[in-house]
């Protein structure tokens, strides 16, 4: 057990450094950041939290193929919390790894169908709500479909939506936001997805 924790911490340390550098590089190339003047301030605790989270999560799984999914989902959690951004540079690799994972587990068709259906539903919702749901969220849900399939993806959407709504209500009550403010739902989907990826 201690050996596994040590290996997990070593991998987490390397990926924390690499992942943080990758995020900063993506920020420097983007002209669509929500808080461009607050990059350093909003990322103040990114590295220690990311290292701690990755160490725990890597220790909880024996499936090495889940490592890239956990890593990418954690990075996307931070970019959406920090700048309300989900980058294609992270979503596309997540989808590719998901397709390979589904193929290895002989569920490629079922998971591809889940990705298409849920991605389509989110696209329709985004159009109907006139942009209250971002394109990054649509691509994230589609990518998660390749990993999780229909049943688990439904649970992710349900849990993520409820958690995001509760967080939004709390921020409004605390006067951190108002009803017209943009709320980042991506982190609630990514963290829910990690839970269901690791669940038996």
Helix proportion: over 70%
Largest sheet: none
Q: How much strand content do the residues show? A: under 5%
Radius of gyration, in angstroms, nearest whole number? 17 Å
State the end-to-end distance: 19 Å
SSE order, one letter for each helix or strand: HHHHHHHH
Q: Give the number of DSSP strands.
A: 0
Tally of individual domains: 1
Question: Which regions have little confidence, pLDDT < 50, spanning 5+ residues?
Answer: none
Report the average pLDDT across residues.
Answer: 93
Q: By helix and strand content, what is the structural category?
A: mainly alpha
Note the overall shape.
globular
Number of helical elements: 8
List keywords for this structure.
0% strand; globular; 200 residues; mainly alpha
Q: How is this structure best described in words?
A:
The protein has one domain (about 1-200). It contains eight helices and no strands. The protein has helices at about 1-30, 40, 45-60, 65-85, 90-105, 110-130, 135-175, 185-200. The radius of gyration is 17 Å and the shape is globular. The protein starts with a helix and ends with a helix. The mean pLDDT is about 95.
